[in-house]
Write a structure and sequence with these properties.
The chain is 17% helix and 27% strand. With 275 residues, it is of the alpha+beta class. The strands form four sheets. Strands 4, 7, 8, 9, 10, 11, 14, 15 and 16 form a nine-stranded mixed beta sheet that branches. A three-stranded antiparallel beta sheet has the order 2-1-3, with no helix packed on it. The radius of gyration is 21 Å and the shape is globular.
């Protein structure tokens, strides 16, 4: 396991020299549309770097964009009974005539809080502009929708259907069923151990007051509090920040092995802590 930081900022020549002096191999900076100087520099550095403490102090002082993720070894991924599953992000949910118009079209928003994002329930099929451009991938998530998984029909038949996971159709914006993509149906839920997790409580809406947890980016996913009743489940707890909230999808190791055997690409897996 290694904790990796994706760093991004407009680096001056002096800042580049400071990073190189500490042993960071830097890529070329990128000039963004519309210009602006200095150009944008983005790179990865992990906490095993011999000069990490000095680098971390520089990043804090410079106020850089710093996105943390954890990369796991194959052994770590294969030695746990459950895994959190995300996927390749591709495209936006439709309709998009108005900003976030897909919410009204796809969800029952009776219990939804606009301030924190908690409480929406799917009422209709998701819509996409067109058939996904899958390339070598066969599992994906839509941007803004981080608690639903979409797969090719072949991936569903080979990896998910044998595990008892149902699917539902996905439509284009004219209401026509798409042929190369289905949505996985995840109905069962499971509670997780939330001790020590950072959280936000919605206080901007008088009728809400609900809690969600900040995304877990460092280390494995928290342990399960309950025994799952299906091979694909979602957490009872919500995760996110600001107006974004979703319930994370968890997959059994048996399904993960089936994905690997079927050659399904696009999944992003994180081990769940063993109780």
């Amino acid at each position: 396991m290694r904790v990796v930081h994706r760093i991004g900022f407009r680096a001056s020549d002096t800042q580049r020299r400071a990073l190189e002096a500490l042993g960071v191999k830097l890529p070329s900076a990128v000039s963004l549309p519309g210009g602006g100087e200095p150009p944008l520099l983005t790179f990865d550095v992990d906490e095993n770097h011999p000069n990490w403490n000095s680098l971390s102090a520089l990043f804090d002082g410079w106020g850089v964009f710093n996105m943390v993720r954890t990369e796991f070894t194959k052994k770590e991924l294969e030695s746990t009974r459950w895994l959190e599953v995300g996927a390749w992000h591709h495209g936006y949910p439709q309709p998009h005539d108005e900003e976030f118009g897909y919410l009204q079209a796809t969800y029952d928003l009776t219990d939804w809080c606009e301030s924190c994002g908690i409480g929406k329930k799917q009422k209709a099929p998701f819509q996409m502009k067109r058939e996904p451009k899958w390339g070598r991938n066969a599992i994906m998530q839509l941007i803004w929708v981080y608690d639903e998984l979409f797969v090719t029909p072949d991936a569903w038949i080979r990896a998910f259907k044998p595990a008892g996971v149902a699917c539902r159709p996905v439509l284009n914006t004219k209401g026509v069923e798409l042929k190369t993509v289905v949505q996985l149906v995840v109905e069962a839920s499971v509670g997780i151990v939330t001790d020590g997790l950072a959280f936000e409580r919605c206080e901007r809406c008088e009728r809400c007051g609900r809690t969600k947890y900040l995304p877990v980016t460092r280390g494995p996913f928290p342990a399960l509090r309950d025994v799952p009743t299906a091979s694909l489940v979602r957490t009872a707890e919500y995760f996110g920040s600001g107006g974004q909230a979703d319930r994370r999808v968890l997959m059994s190791q048996d399904v993960a092995r089936a994905l690997n055997a079927a050659g399904v690409r696009g999944a992003v897996l994180k081990p769940v802590t063993e109780p």
